[in-house]
Every structure is written in C-alpha cells, then in structure tokens.
Design brief:
With 322 residues, this protein is α/β, with parallel strands linked by helices. It is built from twelve helices and 15 strands. Strand 12, helix 9 and strand 13 form a beta-alpha-beta unit. Helix 7 packs parallel to helix 8. The protein is globular. The mean pLDDT is 96.
Length: 322
C-alpha cells in the first residue's frame, strides 16, 4: 500500500515521503481500517517537527483522525494507533475506541468531526460550562479547531465573537455564524471586543493559539469569565500572571482532550452521541475547505503549519469516496 512516512523531524514538506510499504498488521485489540478520509490536524504538523507531547518512533505515518471502513463494511471514526497513522491507504486503530460515523456527514466531514469537535465540546461544556446567553470569544475562528468551537457555541445559544487574521478568514467566520468578527490584522482586538460587549468582555474565551492571543484574552475576559487553554498554534506558550487572574476574578482552564480517552472514555462516547445529534439536525457541520488526494498530503500539512488554511483539509486516498 501507499503511505506517507516521516524518517526524520523537520518541516512536513521536507520530511514526509510517500512510499510503498507493507500493509500494517493489527495488534491485540486492534482492527485494520481502510482509510476513506483522513483529516489534517495541527498535531500532525507538530509530530513532523518533533514538537508534540507524543513522539512516535521513527519512521511513522502521520494522520491522527480518520473516517475508515472496517473489514465488515462499517463506516467508523477513529484515531489511528501510531506509527500507522491515517495518511495511508490503510491504518490500524483500537477496536474499543471506534465510533460510528454519522449518516448525515460524508467521509471527509465525518473524519473532521472527532478531535476538533470533541475538544470544543469538552472545552465549552465540560470545562467552561458555557450557558445560553453568554458571550463566547474564539481565537482563530476560521481554522479547524476554531470553526468547531464557533458552531458549538452557536448551538449552545451563545453570542460568538470570532477573531481571525485577514479578510478571507473574516468572510469564513461570518459564514460560520459569528455574531461579531474581528480581524486582528486591521483592528485593535481588545478595543473591538470591549466595544462589542459594552465594556463587559467575554464570558468564555476559547484559545487554541496562545502567545499574543492569550494576552488579549486576559484583557477582554469578563468578571467570573473562563479562559480555556486548548493549544499553542502561535508557537509561543504564555506564562499566566496569576495575580492578574486573582484581581480580575477569572479562571484559566487547561484542556487536554486526549486524556479523557484513558481517564473517562464513557464521556468521549457521550460527547460523540451529542455531536451526532447536533449534526443530524444541522446545528453543526465540519467546514471541509479542501479535499486532496493522498499524493497531496505533505503539501497540505505544510500549509496548515504555515497558517494559510481555513476550516479542515481532508486527505482522500485513491478509490475512496469523500
């Protein structure tokens, strides 16, 4: 079969190589899956660079999220078991963690429903306890992680402010349903958010960016607000001033979604049921901005790493239906 492999760490476009390799053999408790679509996530970029908290042994195949097909023809969502990731014609995954792909979504959309939406659901509902009528601020609102949070926030009845970089991403954020869109490249984020909220600020801030975005968050979070720290796509990990959190009376909440798979897997299943219901009634739908053939995976991963993509990019192996 064909699969992308990383033999050394570096930029994805330089270290990902497409090769003919042996089909993986499932271990105990695992199943072989035909990859119907693989969604590109920022952890794929970080693993190529060797900067992710999980460092698979070299060589490995990236691709942490797929819609796959079991040997008996079932369509499922899975996180492949590295080193046999999803940017390949076949992958392996833990049988106990397979989730049914919603009938309301095609393969590429189903592949994109898992990590970003689970992270959003846990961040907004489990950690921040977002309530209808509250204001949610989402950084990188047009990206894969941010777009999921925007849709989930709207589905929960929140007023959503989306922060984006550039006019093209601003248009995408508006289409996603943001009530207010702020272009950080041409506007003062802090002033714009304060104006939009009458000086009160945002009740919940969803931050997958870190760096300057986090600093802005601390300036616009409301009294008793919650900042959900999801990731550091900017490459800069902030050092929170706890005295500031004390004086302004806000909470800083960390979220590592992957821990729930081991700490409380029943919650992951419950979340998937909630997401499937939301998708069935059209309240959420993954924004798949592009579908690329397997041969285009390295370029697509690099573009995600460079911050020039919107929504999700799905890799669709030859012969699969997206």
């Amino acid at each position: 079969m064909q699969a992308w492999q990383v033999h050394e760490n570096g930029e994805p476009s330089e270290v990902m190589r497409l090769a003919d390799v042996a089909q993986p053999v499932p271990g105990e408790g695992q199943v072989l899956l035909k990859v119907r679509a693989a969604n590109i996530n920022f952890p794929d970029v970080l693993m190529c660079r060797g900067h992710y908290q999980v460092r698979p042994l070299l060589p490995f195949t990236p691709g942490v999220e797929i819609c796959g097909e079991t040997e008996d023809g079932r369509r499922v969502i899975a996180n492949p078991a590295l080193p046999y990731g999803g940017f390949a014609e076949y992958a392996v995954a833990d049988a106990a963690a397979l989730l049914p792909a919603p009938d309301s979504l095609d393969d590429a959309e189903a592949a994109a429903l898992h990590i970003g939406y689970q992270t959003g659901w846990f961040g907004l509902h489990r950690r921040a306890h977002l309530e209808a009528g509250e204001t949610l601020l989402v950084h990188a609102a047009a990206g894969g992680v941010g777009s999921a949070a925007v849709q989930l926030g709207k589905a929960a009845g929140a007023t959503v402010i989306g922060i984006v970089g550039g006019a093209e991403k601003a248009a995408v954020a508006r289409e996603l349903g943001c009530d207010v869109v702020v272009d950080r490249r041409s506007e003062d984020v802090v002033a714009a958010v304060k104006e939009a909220t009458g000086g009160r600020g945002a009740d919940v801030v969803y931050d997958p960016v870190g760096g300057e975005a986090y600093t802005q968050s601390t300036k616009v979070v409301a009294f008793e607000g919650r900042i959900v720290v999801v990731g550091f796509a900017s490459g800069t990990i902030p050092s929170p001033g706890l005295n500031h959190a004390l004086v302004k009376n806000y909470a800083i909440l960390g979220l590592h979604w992957g821990l729930y798979n081991t700490k409380n897997p029943k919650l992951v299943q419950h979340c998937h049921e909630q997401l499937t219901e939301l998708a069935a009634r059209g309240a959420i739908k993954p924004l798949v901005s592009e579908r690329v053939a397997l041969a285009g995976a390295a370029d697509a991963v690099q573009r995600l790493g460079d911050g020039v993509t919107t929504g999700r990019i799905a890799v669709v192996p030859t012969g699969a239906q997206a």
